[in-house]
Amino acid sequence: MAKNKREVEVIVLSDIHLGTYGCHAKELVAFLKSVSPKLLILNGDVIDGWAFSKRYFPNAHMSVLSEFFKMMKKGTQVIYITGNHDEFLRKYTDLSMGNLSLTDKYLLEIEGKKHWIFHGDVFDHTTSGSAKFIAKLGGIGYDWLILVNRAINWVLEKFGKGKVSLSKRVKNSVKEAVKFIGDFEKKATEIAIDNKYDYVICGHIHQPADKIWTTEKGSVHYLNSGDWIENLSWLEFDKGIWSLKFFNEKDFEKPVIEENDISVNMEELIHPKVFASFVADKFN
Known about the structure:
Elements: E1 6-13, H1 25-32, E2 35-43, H2 59-73, E3 77-81, E4 96-97, E5 100-103, E6 106-110, E7 113-117, H3 129-158, H4 166-173, H5 175-194, E8 199-202, E9 209-215, E10 218-224, E11 233-238, E12 241-246, H6 266-269, H7 272-283
Parallel strand pairs: 1-2, 2-3, 3-5, 7-8, 8-10
Antiparallel strand pairs: 1-11, 4-5, 6-7, 9-10, 11-12
Helix pairs in contact: 1-2
């Protein structure tokens, strides 16, 4: 990795799920230390409020937040779009402080092209009532699957074998999961076409994508930034082109994870006064 950070116009990250065992925080820190974006869009499920516990929020996870704060201090504008797992932040929608803005959707125009950016949970029913409880139970099972998967991959690497993704195999083999992804993309693109957007950018389904959707009413460029659980993916806009990227540890320097005070209430952190004092204390 070069000593000078790579300058990028826009970076979109989503579904980091800080506070869960499946989050690849160290890898994300390595990536964040390598780039200097003008605009950073965090498209939901950055902090996993469903799973958050003071029992598990290691230094690597806090270091991800630290990198975001450092970027803001150096001039990066950060747009935080809330998702279903960090819905506790939605009560602060439209909060702006310095280079940080919190919202539930974001409309961006680049070179005359209109971009509709939102997390995507608006298309399902996992944010309320019994459905939310069931989704949380499913999330616990997903976390255990990720832990088992990591153990299997550790053994495979010891024997010189390639890694496998159990969760991807499950998704690809279950017809309902495949149908859900297809329906999600169809809904997002149809609405985008009806509203004459040139691009629609989502997260939520942990399915990286870069494709053109066409209907009898028109076409739209559909982008999904994926996640930092299974795919370790993100979106970049630079020199007039959107691109979907995937993390490869060979391309990045292994980060030094700093010791951090992790006794922080994540729900309180975004409160204007708490946030301001936290940033001042850590990075001034």
